[in-house]
Amino acid sequence: MNTEKNSYQENLKDLRSNLNTMLPKEALHVFDTDAENLQLNHKSILKLKVGEKAPDFSLSNATNKTITLSDLLEEKKVVLTFYRGSWCPYCNLQLAHYQKSLLHIKALGARLVAISPQTPDESLNVKEKNELNFEVLSDNGNIVARKYTSVFKNADTSINTMTELGFDFDRHYSDDSRELPIPAVFIIEKDATISFAKSLGGDYRNRVEVSEIINVLKK
């Protein structure tokens, strides 16, 4: 019997259980409060709606090769997901979750691409850590992210707590803005029209299920 969990939410329960074991209660409280505040403070997140054209972009991938959206769209549709960074356990969970359905996504005529403001070196780290077989691009300064989703400055309380836990937030990025994108997913048709656009809000613990992406690709 296959016991592998198929949804992000199911895997999230295991992640939360692990975090409760691994992190001091006070630290987890800081991060959870941050997520709840972001949910309250960000109501209108997406910058693009279904039916609009996706802005073209050129970004470096994990091996510093330039990847251009319009070039990708000449071959396949693109499933575009914006994430925060390799230090974020929820991002790692989401990307690993999507990787499990990568063959299904490809079979439906689409290519998966993930974007964060991290350096190419950190993109390579996230690819290796999660054994990802799709492009992970570096959007320094969130130039592209601002055209698709909302961007915010990460809270000092969260960064200070990360530092206390031994994580160097700033080394993941090549600028000092400390800005992050709110996670969001877009499906872009070959003519650059957006056919799906969704964010579950500022609470970065919640992510779009891969099953929802697949259902849209099937239509």
Task: Give a short synopsis of this structure.
By secondary structure, the protein is an alpha/beta fold. Helices cover 40% and strands 18% of the residues. The chain has a single domain, classed as Glutaredoxin.
Characterize the structure shown.
The protein has a single domain (9-218), classed as Glutaredoxin, CATH 3.40.30.10. It has nine helices and nine strands. It has helices spanning 8-22, 25-41, 69-73, 89-100, 102-107, 120-130, 145-148, 156-164, 210-218, and strands at 58-60, 66-68, 77-82, 110-116, 135-138, 151-153, 179-181, 184-188, 194-198. β1 (58-60) and β2 form a beta hairpin. α2 runs antiparallel to α8 (156-164). The longest helix has 17 residues, at 25-41. The chain is globular. The mean pLDDT is 92.
What descriptors fit this protein?
9 helices, five-stranded mixed beta sheet, Peroxiredoxin_BCP/PrxQ, two-stranded antiparallel ribbon, single chain, 18% strand, globular, Glutaredoxin, alpha/beta, 219 residues
